[in-house]
Amino acid sequence: MTDGMIELPGGAFLMGSDRFYPEEGPVVQVQVDAFTMDRYAVTNREFARFVADTGYVTVAERELDPADFPDGDITDVQPGSLVFTPTSGPVDLRNWRQWWHWVPGASWRHPHGPDSSIDELGDHPVVQIAFEDACAFAAWVGKRLPTEAEWEYAARGGLEGATFAWGEEANQRAEPFANTWQGRFPYLNTGARGWVGTAPVGSFPPNGYGLHEMTGNTWEWTADPWTERHQVPAAACTCGCSPQTRTEATGGHGASARRRVLKGGSHLCAPEYCFRYRPAARSAQTEDSATTHIGFRCAH
């Protein structure tokens, strides 16, 4: 199901938005060369083949290095990652720690903790993936991560300036265009097309370029370092897979590290909290962070 890439012609497009969040601006015209993009996000089945072939150990599975935590005690912190847990009712949406929790043993094999499994989720996008993990997979298949500009160009599907990858219609409808939160965040989700959490790749309609789930389902890593605003097109890009050290995703421990740009939003995005299932939307994430809603796809 997940074989194949889409050839994109390249060209000039208007990147960003001045209508929603400040980090999405300014709107700039960007020229993108022709490239190819994975039709779907990388799946659990594909990532499992990579691990079986290489013996790769993801960031979330590695023992913590005391050298990365000069100011903190890590004796009580075990390898793991961040897991989303719905609240029992309405909460203050300014405090994300009410629904995100560090769970020892959570990893791509066990996305929600050691008692969870991906045995029935082979066609779902792999999650609990840090930047270094995505880079390692991309190198194994002879590809790379897309730049932020390439990603947004691909997600727009040829719709210049449109709010969503499909146009202007809202996603709160009987048959949503994308896998986003349906209901009241973070405690009531009725599911998009029946899916609560990730959906198998290809479950939602493709955009104008034939790419599936470019918004919603999972956030996706790009190669670009984070900037608070879009850089002018002439600015030098220090893109690439050069991950730094492990950091404070463990709940406040550790040193800071470089952040990268995530694109696309996820199944946890809701209009009242995270209206980011749009091509222009972007989010900062430390390179060593892995969560239940971050995955990736490759470019070439």
TrEMBL record:
Superkingdom of origin: Bacteria
SUPFAM superfamilies in the cross-refs: C-type lectin-like
Chain ranges of the Sulfatase-modifying factor enzyme-like domain: 2-299
Listed GO MF terms: formylglycine-generating oxidase activity
One Pfam entry name: FGE-sulfatase
PANTHER family given in the database record: FORMYLGLYCINE-GENERATING ENZYME, SULFATASE MODIFYING FACTOR 1, 2
Protein name: Formylglycine-generating enzyme required for sulfatase activity
Species of provenance: Microbacterium immunditiarum
